[in-house]
């Protein structure tokens, strides 16, 4: 990160007001993905500063601590955002998350809202994020394209384990035997049950998938957010929180008839959402007060106790 900061400080300056956009790719993804590169190019062509936060262990970047990414592991993103805000306090920071990356940025801004730090990030955009992991998992295991994607995801996750086995072997559940046998895993749910849930501190895949689903946090979001989804998504389905979005003045959700999963490919080969993201980020320069104040009409959802408070694990 120091190299990135030095580059921006020396060659691009830190006194401009062009804004910083942090792109968070999907599961096992990184800056190598065509969609991420295209989005970054569109933003750069409009003068934005762009950073991509690769998933842990991806893009030939070995991990140095015995931990892989889970949907609840927001500390890497938090560290990056905090450092950007500290180093460039006058820059607006926008987050764009695609697929699994959309889950990470959603869970992150909800955690920040809980501790009163919601003002650091100016806006958030998610593209084809799974809202309900349990429903998405059902879609993966019951549709043809879902099954193909599920098996491919399990392969990449297993490969990531093996590539980082030297560091991960410090963990009880990531011994040489467990890591080598991970190549037999054929679904993301099985991988989550054997590894991801333990990284996140849960006893099973089901408990982890329920707790990590952003759909249970929709009303906690207090950062302006654009949610882009497609109704024909073959990977995560179309179980979207329409009513919760209507209740939250910080949210706008757009669903398209066509688009697939994180695709939206146009006739010329480019991706439709790239211009949408650029326009949304640019709109804050024209429509939002410079101090970032937003009139939300006193939006403050409350949950009352019902018989008992349920604390999981």
CA-based gyration radius: 19 Å
Number of helices: 12
What is the averaged pLDDT score?
88
Low-confidence segments, given as residue ranges, are: none
Distance between the termini: 36 Å
Under CATH at level 1, the class of the domain at 17-132 and 218-287 stands as Alpha Beta
List keywords for this structure.
alpha/beta, 6 strands, 6-stranded parallel beta sheet, 10% strand, 313 residues, 42% helix, Rossmann fold
Write a concise synopsis of the structure shown:
The protein has helices spanning 2-12, 34-45, 75-87, 100-114, 133-142, 144-163, 165-168, 176-181, 188-199, 205-212, 242-247, 273-287, and strands at 20-24, 49-52, 93-98, 123-127, 225-230, 251-256. It has 313 residues and is an alpha/beta fold.
Describe this entry's structure for a reader:
By secondary structure, the protein is an alpha/beta fold. The chain has a domain at 17-132 and 218-287: Alpha/Beta hydrolase fold, catalytic domain (Rossmann fold). 42% of the residues lie in helices and 10% in strands. The chain is built from 12 helices and 6 strands. Strands 2-1-3-4-5-6 form a 6-stranded parallel sheet, with helices on both faces. α2 (34-45) packs parallel to α12 and α9 (188-199) crosses α10 (205-212). The radius of gyration is 19 Å and the shape is globular. Belongs to the AB hydrolase superfamily. AB hydrolase 4 family.
């Amino acid at each position: 990160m120091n190299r990135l900061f030095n580059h921006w400080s020396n060659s691009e300056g830190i006194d401009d007001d062009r804004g910083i956009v942090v792109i968070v790719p999907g599961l096992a993804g990184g800056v190598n993905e065509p969609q991420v590169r295209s989005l970054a190019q569109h933003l750069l062509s409009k003068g934005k500063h762009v950073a991509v936060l690769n998933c842990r262990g991806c893009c030939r970047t070995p991990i140095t601590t015995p931990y892989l990414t889970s949907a609840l592991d927001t500390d890497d993103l938090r560290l990056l955002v905090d450092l950007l805000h500290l180093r460039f306090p006058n820059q607006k920071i926008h987050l764009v998350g695609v697929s699994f990356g959309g889950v990470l940025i959603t869970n992150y801004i909800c955690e920040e809202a809980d501790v009163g730090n919601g003002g650091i990030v100016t806006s958030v955009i998610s593209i084809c994020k799974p809202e309900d992991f349990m429903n998405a998992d059902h879609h993966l295991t019951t549709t043809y394209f879902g099954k193909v994607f599920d098996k491919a995801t399990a392969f990449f996750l297993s490969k990531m384990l093996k590539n980082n086995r030297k560091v991960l072997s410090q963990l009880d559940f990531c011994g040489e035997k467990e890591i080598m046998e991970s190549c037999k895993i054929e679904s993301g749910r099985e991988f989550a049950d054997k590894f991801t849930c333990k990284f996140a501190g849960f006893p099973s895949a089901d408990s982890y998938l329920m707790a990590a689903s952003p759909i249970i946090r929709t009303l906690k979001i207090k950062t302006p957010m654009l949610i882009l989804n497609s109704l024909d998504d073959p990977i995560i389905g179309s179980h979207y929180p329409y009513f919760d979005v209507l209740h939250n003045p910080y949210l706008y959700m757009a669903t398209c008839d066509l688009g697939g999963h994180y695709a939206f490919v146009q006739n010329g080969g480019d991706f439709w959402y790239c211009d949408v993201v650029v326009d949304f980020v640019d709109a804050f320069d024209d429509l939002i007060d410079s101090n970032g104040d937003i009139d939300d009409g006193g939006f403050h959802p409350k949950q009352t106790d019902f018989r008992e408070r349920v604390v999981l694990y």
